[in-house]
Design goal:
two-stranded parallel sheet, 9 helices, 10 strands, globular
Length: 263
C-alpha cells in the first residue's frame, strides 16, 4: 500500500512541468491532512502559485492495482464538483497563456468561456466517457480544440466517436486511448491512424497513464505543432509512466531520450 498525491490536475501539471513546460495551476487544495500532502507535493514540483486556493477537504481515492497493472479507482470528490473557482483569479492565470488544459471537474466548467473569451485554445481529456450522449461533457466538447478520451466506455467505434467530435464542436485534434492496443489520432483532413503502445520498462501500474499521455502530447504539440510527433512523444511518456507504481514518477525529456534516442 502507498499514500501519495495524485488526481488529474496534479498529474497533468506535474507531467508538463517535468518535461519542461511552464505551468500555472488552478485548483483547490484541502486544509486537511491529505491536502497538506498534496501541497507539499506541488511545492516540490514547483507548481504552487496564486491559482491554488483552499477548500475544507481535498478529494481522495482508493486505487486497486492487479498484478497485470490494471486498476480500479473508487473516488470521494468531497464538495469540489459544486465549488466555483473565482473567475477573476482564472482570468489572471490565463492571461498570456498559449493553451488552457481544463479538466472535467465541476468547478472548472465556468472557466471554459473565460479561456475562450481570452482566445486561448482549450484542451480537455474527457476520461472514460460513453460518447456525445454524455451531456455532462457537452460544454467541454463545445469549447475544446484538442480532445482526448479513453475508449474504455465508448458506446461507438473510437473512429466514429472521433469523427463526431470533429464535426460537433471546435476540435481539430482528437485522440482516443485504446489501452494496450495503442492510441487513435483523428484530424479533420485525413483518415484516423493508430499508433502502438510503447512500454520500455513493462507494465507495473496503469494509474495515471492517460494523464501522462495527455501531458506528453500537449508538451510536444506546443513545441512542434505536429500532431504525429506529439502523439509519438505522448505514447512514449505514457509507456514510461506505467513502468512505475503509483503516480509519483513523471518523465523528463532526458528520460524519454534515454529510452528512445531517435525520438
Amino acid at each position: 500500500m502507498r499514500l501519495e498525491a495524485a488526481g488529474v490536475g496534479s498529474n497533468v501539471a506535474r507531467g508538463l512541468a517535468a518535461l519542461g513546460s511552464g505551468v500555472r495551476l488552478a485548483t483547490f487544495l484541502g486544509a486537511d491532512n491529505a491536502g497538506r500532502l498534496a501541497r507539499e507535493t506541488l511545492i516540490r514540483a514547483g507548481l504552487t502559485g496564486p491559482g491554488i486556493l483552499t477548500a475544507d477537504a481535498i478529494a481522495q481515492s482508493a486505487v486497486l492495482v492487479d498484478p497485470d497493472g490494471r486498476r480500479q479507482i473508487i473516488t470521494d470528490l468531497k464538495d469540489l464538483p459544486e465549488r466555483h473557482y473565482p473567475i477573476s483569479v482564472f482570468e489572471q492565470l490565463v492571461d498570456g497563456a498559449t493553451l488552457a488544459s481544463i479538466s472535467t471537474i465541476g468547478f472548472a466548467r465556468g472557466l471554459l468561456p473565460v479561456a475562450a473569451a481570452a482566445r486561448v485554445p482549450i484542451a480537455v481529456d474527457l476520461q472514460a466517457t460513453s460518447g456525445l450522449q454524455d451531456s455532462y461533457l457537452t460544454d467541454w466538447i463545445d469549447h475544446a480544440s484538442i480532445v482526448f478520451c479513453s475508449a474504455e466506455n465508448l458506446t461507438v467505434d473510437p473512429a466514429v466517436f472521433a469523427r463526431e467530435v470533429l464535426t460537433h464542436g471546435r476540435a481539430r485534434i482528437v485522440v482516443v486511448g485504446l489501452g494496450a492496443a495503442g492510441c487513435l489520432l483523428a484530424l479533420p483532413d485525413r483518415e484516423p491512424r493508430v499508433i502502438a503502445t510503447r512500454a520500455p520498462f513493462g507494465v507495473v501500474d496503469t494509474t495515471g497513464a492517460g494523464d501522462a499521455l495527455f501531458a506528453g502530447f500537449l508538451h510536444a504539440w506546443l513545441r512542434t505543432q505536429d500532431p504525429d510527433r506529439a502523439l509519438a512523444t505522448a505514447v512514449l511518456a505514457a509507456g514510461w509512466t506505467v513502468g512505475f507504481p503509483g503516480t509519483s514518477r513523471h518523465p523528463t525529456t532526458a528520460d524519454l531520450v534515454a529510452v528512445d534516442p531517435q525520438g
